[in-house]
Design a protein that fits this description.
This protein has about 350 residues and is α/β, with parallel strands linked by helices. It has 2 domains: about 5-130 and about 255-310, Periplasmic binding protein-like II (D-Maltodextrin-Binding Protein, domain 2, 3-Layer(aba) Sandwich), CATH 3.40.190.10; about 135-255 and about 325-345, Periplasmic binding protein-like II (D-Maltodextrin-Binding Protein, domain 2, 3-Layer(aba) Sandwich). Helices cover about 40% and strands about 15% of the residues. The strands form 2 sheets. Strands 1, 2, 3, 4, 7, 8, 9, 10 and 11 form a 9-stranded mixed sheet that branches. It starts with a helix and ends with a helix.
């Protein structure tokens, strides 16, 4: 018998819990670990997705372990036969890495009740996309009375010492670099104009955030007044009374899908599947689209409405006209080198 230490412990814990509580089902006794993202994503998943998952599984336990995609991949790679994570959440670049390194299970599409209802771009056989993230300009309306309208506005002299960005370990940071490269004649395959633009932005920078969630703290502390930012993260900040607004730049907002993946060798594959099913259900996506989360849904059964429709796109077809979708396969070819260069050259 090929039993891993984790499977033995899991079996023992499950049996023990069921003996202590005779009315408890096996699903209730088990537990999965979901590696969500930090900041607003952890809050949204804790408040909406977790309750839906527990309802669907008759009370099965779940632990949220917020971390960046690169950390998720490192943890699972280090313990392939006994992964400490059951479900990973990835943006496009890290998802390609996880799949290429055989860290994920194919999604059981034939068992899914909702996969067929996702927009075509979200129907990923190695893990469906549960939502889109949209990146535009974030600013403090108490300090900046005329809303910015272009990525180029970050270089305005009046914002010197008040601009924030994130490092390239985040999809937000890398996506922003690609867009300013494109704005200056470059592309995913020619990033040099982007680094030149960052070099000229350095005098205006107040902070380089370690992750998108840290940008919220910087706004709250008054350390920055303008930055690239995720749409939904801004809405949660606003709901807490932080003076912050979002605007899509005239060059178009950046959009990227975020996918859920069953980790290969998980001891709770059925529960991992149940979590992802809950995430792509119209009920959960509809709730996440509402304030304060305002997450952009991928399930076509969800009618886009409210602030998402007002600020971003009126329906799923409208997204293709208003969003920029970047080539993450091409980005991944050089991303590691970009991260090293950024960490070496861009300091505040």
């Amino acid at each position: 018998m090929n039993l891993t230490r984790r499977s033995l412990m899991t079996s023992a814990l499950t049996l023990g819990a069921m003996q202590l509580f005779p009315g408890m089902s096996e699903a209730q006794a088990k537990r999965i670990v979901f590696a969500t993202f930090t900041g607003s994503w952890e809050e949204a998943h804790r408040d909406v997705l977790v309750p839906a998952y527990r309802k669907a599984t008759n009370g099965a336990e779940i632990v949220l372990d917020p971390m960046l995609s690169v950390d998720q991949i490192a943890k699972v790679t280090a313990a392939r036969s006994n992964p400490p994570i059951d479900v990973m959440l990835h943006d496009p670049g890290p998802a390609l890495v996880a799949i290429a390194n055989d860290l994920t299970e194919p999604y059981p599409v034939d068992k899914s009740a909702y996969y067929k209802d996702l927009i075509a771009e979200a129907q990923e056989p190695n893990g469906p996309a549960g939502f889109f993230q949209v990146v535009g300009l974030t600013y403090n309306p108490d300090k900046i009375k005329t809303p910015p309208s272009s990525w180029q506005d970050l270089w305005k002299p009046e914002y010197k010492g008040k601009v924030g960005i994130t490092n390239l370990n985040s999809t937000l940071g890398t996506g922003f670099l690609v867009e300013i490269a494109r704005m200056n004649g470059g592309s995913e395959a020619n990033i040099e104009p982007g680094f030149k633009a960052l070099e000229s932005l350095k005098p205006s920078l107040s902070a380089v955030a370690a992750n998108p969630g840290q940008l919220a703290t910087l706004f709250q502390q008054g350390q920055i007044d303008i930055s690239p930012g995720n749409f939904n993260a801004i809405q949660i900040m606003k709901a807490r009374g932080v003076a912050v607004e979002f605007v899509a730049p005239k060059e178009k907002a950046i959009a990227f899908k975020t996918t859920f993946h069953i980790v290969k060798n998980t001891q709770a594959k059925d529960l991992a599947f149940a979590l992802i099913e809950a995430a792509i259900s119209p009920e959960v996506q509809g709730k996440l689209m509402e304030a304060p989360y305002l997450v952009v849904p991928t399930n076509t059964k969800v009618k886009i409405s409210g602030e998402v429709a007002k600020t971003l796109a009126k329906d799923h077809a409208d997204m293709k006209n208003k969003f920029v979708f970047q080539d993450w396969k091409k980005i991944n070819e050089q991303r590691s080198a970009w991260i090293e260069r950024f960490n070496r050259e861009i300091k505040v």
